[in-house]
Amino acid sequence: xxxxxxxxxxxxxxxxxxxxxxxxxxxxxxxxxxxxxxxxxxxxxxxxxxxxxxxxxxxxxxxxxxxxxxxxxxxxxx
Length: 78
Fold this sequence. Notes:
The protein has one helix at residues 69-76, and strands spanning 10-12, 19-21. With 78 residues, it is mostly loops. A two-stranded antiparallel sheet has the order 1-2. It is globular.
């Protein structure tokens, strides 16, 4: 028996951490007012993880999804 996989799709704010389901009517972020995005701006694939920093299809970083400061400092140490 084949199991059907359906990914939930999201809209994310390119400026802050707000997200909502694609089925909601929100066009703009209720926290900062920026226009929400629902696809990767690099490859056009849907956003299926609202916590992701990078697109799972092409590896491009989503706008506004920055690495945390501790992680950035660790990478700078060689």
